[in-house]
Amino acid sequence: MVINQNESYPLIAVEQVNKSFPLPDGKGEFTVLESINFTVQRGEVVALLGRSGSGKSTLLRIMAGLIPPSSGQIISNGKRLRGANQDVAMVFQSFALLPWLTVQENVELGLEARGISRAERQQRALKAIDLVGLDGFESAYPKEISGGMKQRVGFARAFVLQPKVLFMDEPFSALDVLTAENLRGEIDDLWNEGKFPSESIVIVTHNIEEAVFLADRVVILGSKPGRIRGEVKIELPRPHPTNSDRFKQLVDYIYTIMTNPEKEVTGVAAAPPKVARSPFAQALPHARAGGISGLLELLVEKPDAKEDLPKLAERLQLEVDDLLPIVDAAVLLGFAKVAQGDITLTEIGKDFATTTILRSKDLFRQQVLANVPIIVSMVQSLREKQNGSMRADFFLDLLDEHFPHQEAERQFSTAVDWGRYAELFEYDATEERLYLPEASVSLEEATLS
Ligand SMILES: Nc1ncnc2c1ncn2[C@@H]1O[C@H](COP(=O)(O)OP(=O)(O)OP(=O)(O)O)[C@@H](O)[C@H]1O
């Protein structure tokens, strides 16, 4: 693809974009994206990296014109975007193929919608199918081909439109590890060899190595609400050498940013974090007490109770998104610290992982009461009641004011799991009521013990 260097303006500019969705109870709104300013320049590969729920896909959909922003605007190729963005084609995580159409018919579909003649459709589709290595499979149906081949069709269907920008929404995450690695490598080769049919690429991912491998620039989003924390330039020769020290340093640096939600990303000013007004507004990382305990037990056996996070994730065969909530929870509770991509247990963390069950529960209770305002507030509310019992709905309503309902329920169940483990309260799921335990320790005693 020849890049039009004469155009001085970016291919896509996102200006002061906010996006909110109404809360299900109709009272107020839930902010998904806040004050987003972002550009896609000509000739670059940019990765949007953020944890689950940081609004990456929503931002992609807004830039593609599939949904409108609540405020702010998108300028695409110099013009204000209204409706679907014709400069963009999208590759989805789920392939999104029509099962009753052949490979070639699936690839031609978008061209048909644009009113292109049958002969030209055929010729362009065959070229795109060839480019993704599916030559010979034109007449196959999706059910007859493997997951990796389905995603090749997904790429061909986007390539055939010759979009100015190709959007990829976690394109490799539904594939097994080896297939993903192969296809990722091939896509990167097409780009490096100048055969790619678009001027720029935007890839949404939560895989740090993938972002550093493919992108020239990694833009990091923070969560709740989604905002741009900053960006990291990947100044490496192409293809990015995954075994080089610099590659590993960049991956470690981004891990550190991702595991420290408040850390400023150097280079770009980060928006100030929102101050939580209510104890029910602070989002807890979704990790079970048993999971946190398991992580601490794993780490305490390592030299200096320290481990490199990318290596740990790889050894456990986990995705970043699976490991980070547990790491976050351990950090929030003061059991661990994260720096330069390493997680290290604190003295309390080491104590927790090596002591008796009874004492570890005491330590957990002490750390929860010192660091988790929602649980302190729940215990205080139970103490206000003579019978020491309250309906779960009371707390769910308070959470609903700050989170969408499903997330409010997840927050509640995480708080209940931690509170039960700390023996601060009991929960009867049938009655949907919380109770103080029989011999309840006073908050002051618990904090001081
Ligand atoms: N149409 C919608 N109505 C209400 N809430 C929505 C809607 N679309 C997205 N959200 C919410 O917006 C938040 C961000 O979602 P989004 O899918 O953009 O995040 P993401 O960073 O791409 O996450 P993931 O990596 O899990 O795909 C989530 O909490 C989601 O529940």
From TrEMBL:
PROSITE patterns: ABC_TRANSPORTER_1, ABC_TRANSPORTER_2. Keywords: ATP-binding, Nucleotide-binding, Transport. It comes from the Bacteria. This is Nitrate ABC transporter ATP-binding protein. It comes from Hydrococcus rivularis NIES-593. Belongs to the ABC transporter superfamily. Nitrate/nitrite/cyanate uptake transporter (NitT) (TC 3.A.1.16) family. Residues 12-248 form the ABC transporter domain. It is found in: Cell inner membrane. The lineage of its organism: Bacteria, Bacillati, Cyanobacteriota, Cyanophyceae, Pleurocapsales. The keyword Coiled coil does not apply. Its main location: membrane. GO terms for molecular function: ATP binding; ATP hydrolysis activity. One of its GO terms (cellular component) is plasma membrane. Pfam families: AAA_assoc_C (PF09821), ABC_tran (PF00005). It is a peripheral membrane protein.
